[in-house]
Design a protein that fits this description.
By secondary structure, the protein is α/β, with parallel strands linked by helices. It is built from three helices and three strands.
Length: about 90
């Protein structure tokens, strides 16, 4: 399932659009991926890296989130973030 999500994320452009192969769609962008330890977040983080983004992988589960950040490459980093609560 996750490989299919990665595939769809990488080919989201419509058929009539063309893409300069020397430039990636997310070059120079920073992506914050919440809930990245599993599911869609886990699948989209490497897809964003492949498209040139600097990715910040976040999740409350450090044991699962840190390996996700290491797998895409040097342009991804992990930070613990709990999106369920606002800071006080």
């Amino acid at each position: 399932m996750y490989s299919r999500i990665r595939q769809l994320a990488g080919t989201a452009m419509s058929d009539h659009e063309t893409r300069d192969s020397s430039r990636k769609r997310l070059d120079g962008k920073v992506a914050l991926v919440g809930g990245a330890a599993r599911g869609i977040g886990e699948a989209i983080a490497p897809a964003f890296v492949d498209e040139g983004a600097t990715v910040r992988v976040t999740d409350v589960d450090e044991a699962l989130g840190e390996p996700v950040a290491r797998s895409p490459g040097a342009s991804a980093a992990y930070a613990r973030l709990d999106l369920r609560e606002e800071p006080r």
